[in-house]
Design a protein that fits this description.
About 40% of the residues lie in helices and about 20% in strands. With about 280 residues, the chain is α/β, with parallel strands linked by helices. Strand 4, helix 6 (about 115-125) and strand 5 form a beta-alpha-beta unit.
Length: about 280
Amino acid sequence: MNYRHAYHAGNFADCVKHALLLALLKFLSRKPAGFFVLDTHAGCGHYDLSSEEAEKTGEWRAGIGRLLEETEDTSPAALQDYLGAVRALGLYPGSPQFTRYALRPQDRLAACELHPEDVRPLRRLFRNDPQVSVHHRDGYEALRALLPPKDLKRGLVLIDPPFEKPDDFAQCARAVSLIQSRFRAGIIAIWYPVKHRTPVRAFQTALLEAGIRDMIACEFLLRPPLDPSRLNGCGVLVVNPPYGFEQDAQAILAALQTALSPEDGDTITVNIERLADE
């Protein structure tokens, strides 16, 4: 319960996660029927990048700060939905506010947050919003209570834990199996850190051994993942990706690679790997 995302909002990992999240939501919006989104680790909802916490690390400057140096006319086409949402929403949005931005009248969002200091601003952000329900509860425990969604057959579950506990990868793997048993048609997106390869490989192996099919891993590496004390990159693993998402994800990651690459130093690498077919 020590992790506070305000220190890291808008960094490179947020750019990757949120750009891919909006791409998934865009695919869901192509069909007229409503969809349901469950955000298991919602955070505050949005973040002030001029705050003491954000300025203390300054991580956003090498992330969304770099991207916003471009004008709307010169921004990469693959990032226009993401940057358009950031510019429209003002304070840097967290995943629940990005999701709310993409909802249509027939869609719904359930946002879970356990940290007492974060759930209060989350409730304020969505007060009196009939399409959003905020839950002060453990997101993993909420899977049984909120899935399958009532009246909606399509949707997305976003799992974005702080990864401050040694069993977070194992807990994510168990969550995927539970979601598949209760919401088979749902898309699952899990953000994960890449510090070194062993935990990521073990996570992916656990999913394969559990029989999870139709999986891709989208990874963005600032440097080779050799130092386990550093955040060397991140990934988003997607189960049941919509048809065409891989191509859009490749374009998004390539645009971020170009925009966020430092003038000197380590070279950013991106990779999309299909871990299991349908």
